[in-house]
Design goal:
The protein is of the alpha+beta class. Helix content is 36%, strand content 26%. It has helices spanning 2-7, 72-80, 102-112, 128-139, 144-157, 173-184, 203-218, 230-233, 250-255, 261-270, 325-330, 352-361, 363-384; strands at 30-41, 44-56, 61-65, 87-92, 95-96, 113-116, 191-195, 222-226, 238-243, 246-248, 272-276, 281-283, 291-297, 300-305, 311-317, 322-323, 337-340, 345-351. Helix 4 runs parallel beside helix 6 (173-184). The longest helix has 22 residues, at 363-384. The protein starts with a helix and ends with a helix. Bound molecules: adenosine-5'-triphosphate (ATP) and magnesium ion. Residues 72-73, 195 line the site of magnesium ion.
């Protein structure tokens, strides 16, 4: 930790700006607005990113996940400016990176972003220490007399100091990746963008690289990391799931993990966003059921009227959980009321017939929902009987 403190001085972790740049409207560290990327090949034009809107906040550790070919690397390359969008805008701390020239981009990137790739990409003819000093030389960020000491300290951080004067070929893949991370940190950038940094490592080495990232996030860095490793993806602060060049609603992915990515995307497109004031009724007991509501913000209370007309709150639900599934499943009127608790609630509604259709398409999801329905019916029966 003390090493980290001396190596990283930018306490506020702000990004340095090229002159003459317009500010983006939002306040997120990274913002993508309607980003489209098409590639042309012999078969014609191929849309890889289909109008991506996404944002990454300061201090977040975001895992970008999705099937092979879904567009993860293409998305990452938009953020780093390695590639340019066909249309749309990318702002990084207000800097419109898609408008920078190649040269401006290279310098800006060198100062503000540490990039880590799957295949390390250390320069083979330079020693490990020289590899790490290169970004400092290129961007002229630290006084020449300090660069070597800083390089050695960074190597110490990744436990590679004793190998400083070796060539990359003389060390293992995991060690090369640790050096590549040290290189990414050379100019103390506020963010690290990594494309499958553990993809070529055994699980133990992958764990040590991931632990290093966690440590950096704790120090205030922002990390966006593409990963295929589902156990690592569970440990980041948020995941962004891409399917066919589009982003799946994160709550849909959480609520119905047994759907295929395609099905999740289909649901995402059918969602209708809704807002409810504190105390506002979302579902009225006895009314016809129209929707399944997936909660995306706030908390809702499920309220039953007992036979003596008294109210009892039988359940509280938070983002990622859904209500209205019992009625949808049983084809009955609402058996309980649902209302926003003490804070405003945001939810997305999925049409009842769409939900039924979805369960027909995904038998495993149907099973999960079936179990949930039975469990909740038991809870409700207990509540009615006054046991709760
Ligand atoms: N330079 C290019 N020219 C043409 N097509 C490309 C180019 N780069 C990517 N593609 C295509 O775009 C699609 C998305 O590629 P991308 O590399 O972003 O996927 P990915 O999600 O990173 O996959 P993986 O998990 O295998 O790394 C693929 O079908 C790929 O073939
Ligand atoms: Mg990729």
């Amino acid at each position: 930790m003390t090493i980290l403190k001396t190596l990283f001085h930018k306490q506020d972790n702000t990004v340095s700006k090229p002159s003459g740049q317009a500010e983006a409207p939002g306040k997120s560290l990274i913002e993508l607005v309607n980003v489209v990327k098409t590639f042309k090949n012999a078969a014609g034009e191929f849309v890889v990113l289909k109008g991506i809107n996404a944002h990454f906040e300061r201090g977040e550790f975001v895992g970008v996940i999705g099937k092979s070919g879904s567009g993860k690397s293409t998305l990452i390359n938009m953020i780093t400016g390695i590639d340019r969008p066909t249309s749309g805008e990318i702002f990084v701390d207000g800097v419109a990176v898609h408008t920078l020239s190649e040269n401006e981009m290279a310098i800006w990137r060198g100062k503000n972003m540490g990039i880590v790739f799957q295949f390390f990409q250390l320069l083979p003819t330079l020693s490990l220490l020289e590899n790490i000093m290169l970004p400092m030389d290129f961007c002229n960020t630290y006084p020449p007399g300090e660069r070597k000491d800083r390089g050695l300290e960074l190597l110490r951080l990744v436990e590679m100091e004793e190998h400083a004067y070796k060539l990359p070929t003389a060390i293992s893949g995991g060690q090369q990746q640790r050096v590549a991370i040290a290189r990414a940190l050379a100019n103390d950038p506020p963010m690290i963008i990594a494309d499958e940094p553990t993809g070529n490592l055994d699980s133990k080495t992958a764990e040590s690289v991931f632990a290093l990232f966690e440590n950096l996030v704790n120090q205030g860095k922002t990390i966006v990391m593409v990963t295929h490793d589902s156990s690592l993806a569970k440990r980041v602060s948020r995941t962004l799931l891409i399917a066919d060049g589009e982003i799946v609603n994160e709550w849909v992915a959480k609520a119905w993990p047994t759907l295929t990515h395609q099905q999740m995307l289909m649901v995402t497109k059918q969602l209708e966003p809704l807002h409810f004031a504190p105390g506002e009724t979302i579902i009225e007991q006895g009314s016809a059921s129209e929707n399944v509501y997936l909660i995306t913000q706030g908390e809702v209370e499920v309220v039953l009227k007992r036979q003596d007309n008294s109210d009892v709150v039988v359940n509280r639900m938070t983002p990622g959980q859904y209500v209205g599934e019992i009625e949808t499943f049983r084809g009955e009127n609402a058996i309980a009321s649902v209302r926003a608790a003490h804070l405003p609630v945001e939810a997305v509604a999925l049409d009842r017939s769409e939900f039924i259709h979805l369960l027909e398409e995904s038998k495993s999801t149907k099973q999960v929902v079936e179990q949930l329905v039975e469990e909740r019916e038991r809870e409700n029966a207990d509540a009615r009987a006054g046991k709760l």
